[in-house]
Every structure is written in C-alpha cells, then in structure tokens.
Please model this.
Amino acid sequence: MRIFRNRMFTFLLAIIFFAGTFALTGCTSKDASQKSADLVYVNWAEGVAYTHLAKVVLEDKMDYDVTITSADVGPAYTSVANGDKDAFMETWLPVLHKDYVEKFGDQITDLGYVYEGTQSGLVVPTYVTIDSISQMNGVVDKFDGKITGIDAGAGIMQTTEQLIDAYNLDYELISSSGPAMTSALKGAVDNEEWIVVTGWKPHWMFGRWDLKFLKQDPDNMMWKPGNIHIMGRLNIEEDKPELAQFLKNFHFTDAQLADLMVKVEQSDQDVEVVARNWMNNNMDLVNSWIPSE
Model:
C-alpha cells in the first residue's frame, strides 16, 4: 500500500511538472511573438528617418526583435493588408493615399497620425519667377518641359498626372526616386537653373534650400493639407497590444521631425546610428511613446 501511495505521489508530481512546463513554455512563446515587430516603409526621407528611430526605440528600450523593410507604396499596403507585415509607417491622408485606403480599408487598422500638417505639390526654387501652376505653360522651355518626380507608384505621382490633365499642362512627368529627385534639385540649385519637382512637407530639402510650392487655383485644388498616419494589419491591437499602443503614441511636432531629418541628411553615418543618437538626446519625448505597464 505504501509503495502504491509513493507511486501515486510521484505520478502527480510529474503531472504538475509537465503542466507547469507546458504553461511556462506557452507563455514564453506568446511573449516572444508579441515582442517582435515587422515594419514596412517607403524610401522617403521622413519615413526613413522615423522608421529607423522606431526600430532603435523598440530594440533598445522595449526589448523587441525588429525588422524594417523598404518598399514601394502599393506593395507596402498589400503586405500589411495580407498580414505579412505588422504596420505600414507612412500613409498620407486625406488625399495622397486615398485610393489605397479605399481599396484596403477593411483589411488594415488606422493607428493614428505620426505627423500633422502635411503639404504636397509642385515645388520650385524661390529664384524661379512664377508663383502658380497656371503660369507653367508660359515657361515650358525654362523647365525643359519636364516635372521631376519620384517612384512611379507613389500617390503624388498619380495626382500629378491628374493635375497635368486638369491644368492642360504641356509637360512630361519623369519618374525617378526620392534621392534622385533631391539630387536633381541640388544640381539645379547649384547652377541656379529652373526645375520643378514633386515635393512634400515634411522634408529636409525645405531646410536646406529656399523653395516654394507653386500655388493651385482655388477652384482646381489637387492637394490639400493633411496628416501622416500609421496603418497596422487588421488584428494588431489584439495580437500585439503593446506594439500597437507604441505606434499610436509615436508622434512628432514639425520642429522635432525637422531636427531628426536634418541630422540624418547631414550625417555620413548609418541612419540607425544617427537615430540612436537622436533617441538618446530626446529621452523625454521617447519615454512618452513607450506604453506604461
């Protein structure tokens, strides 16, 4: 009888041990899954700067395993809508990405805005003597009949094509990339040549050169002020509530974002190194983004 009781006691201990181990393993696995972030961004200056900053804050201050991926706008939305990525870091609303949000709206989660007061349009150096889009057809030769754009899938490119039709402009929109556009702008400004580019705020180029937006006709407004949102995948608030709350808290004023962007643009160091230095010098702001326990 005593032997039987000992065997029963050992059996019960084994059950408790394996049950505890299973529960602990399950919790650890769940915690590890929640402590990862897979973010996608577009190769635009502001998105490059603050997505790298988000990465170092999540890794250094919140112990996350973070992957960030650069992509064109269309594939970025598709990856979040399909649940392959946790969040797309740069949705411009209400105009620039309106078509994408209408297409994927029931497959993504709006986590709020990271920046308020965006502006998009056609940008020229201030030495260019016209002030409005409606004046462009009178100086086609000065601009060589070209508008220098960015990547072909960007919303600003689609809106510029619509603008060319709406204003009956005798211009060709040339696709390139964000860095190629600013390189062309630099070359023109250095030689005081005329150039018109697709541009937007926030962007470091407004801090580096004297630029202006060409005015739109009041009855033909293609771009309006807006905000930059972060769009998460559909169930991110349930699957990764801490990450979702961090991205909701992640917000800059114009001065804060301009400071980060200028430091990234002026540095020869890797963006992640610059972002980490900026983080360490702005801990009051960074701490305001980290969710409390």
In short: The first strand starts at residue 36 and ends at 41. The beta strands are 36-41, 65-70, 87-93, 108-125, 146-148, 172-174, 197-201, 211-213, 226-233.
